[in-house]
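Our preliminary data section would be incomplete without showing what the modeling component actually yields. Below, a chain of 344 amino acids is followed by its predicted structure, encoded as tokens that our downstream tools consume directly.
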Amino acid sequence: MKNKSHRIIISTLFLLILSGIMLIGILYYKVNTPFFNINEPVYIYIDGKKDYNHLLSDLESAAKIKNRTLFDRLASKMNYPENVKSGKYRIAPATTCLEAVRMFRNAQQVPVKITFNNIRLKKDFAERLGEQLMFGPERLLDELNSPSVCNSLGFDTINIVTMFIPNTYEMYWTISADNFLQKMKKEYDKFWTPERLKKAKELSLSPHEVSVLASIVEEETADKSEYPIVAGLYINRLRKGMLLQADPTVKFAVGDVTLRRILFAHLEVDSPYNTYKHSGLPPGPIRIPSISGIDAVLNYAQHNYLYMVAKEDFSGKHNFATNLSEHNRNARKYQDALNRNNIR
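Predicted structure:
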């Protein structure tokens, strides 16, 4: 009888141990196998307004978590709910429960690749960049409109946009607006190498002025092969003390870059950006110039052109001239083409 009781106790213990091992095995399997019903990576954003419950909701709606309760229990065991950290996080189809909790707890963010080009206005830049980072467009625009902030970076509120060199940059989504600007300033200083600074000095232009001229060049022609030619033309005019008379600056001054035809009324607009009225370069760029535009100014084509007008075939290219009579003939061709096509 005693032996029988002993065997029952041993059997019971064995079953309990076996059950425990099986339970541990099941839990191990569940937390170490793909835990989300997704076919491609999903990104989870946690900002200062989101807490742990918001995260659980996002994991359900965006990442299709398989077992919210299991995630919650594991996260609690690892003391994560009290230590939620902001960031952009990547959930891949193969991500396990354990990997996800560790990623969030250790703030293992994925970097954001920031790319920008073809931007004209400061507010457009703030919107494009701000919406890609946690601090948002309004905060960035406030910084760019702050005289003290711009001055600390070596710029003013008008020319601050020349500090941003269009390229692809990598940073964390949670970067502060101040640190973002500091990073951009470092990239700007890196871009303006001794060689580029030397070429700017030879032109008697500051880096800021080179960027302003590059912005006009890029707005003037759609053909990159013309960049150095157009740059050389405006440098010739600057050296002769001539008005630039650049149509894109007039479009910028009147606030309509879509104008196909510049009228006398447009040329009368009272603005420092109207290069038909004011000599020299305008106070700021009319767009954020690209690297190719800046380098086209620094490596301008040497020639005697002083005038240019769009070709009558509307190809985006230009007819160049060294004197006014030749230019007037080219201009008439373009005006006739506009009239033939009823472009007002």
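The beta strands are 42-46, 87-91, 112-115, 168-171, 307-310, 318-321. The chain has 15 helices and six strands. Preliminary results of this kind motivate Aim 1 of the renewal.
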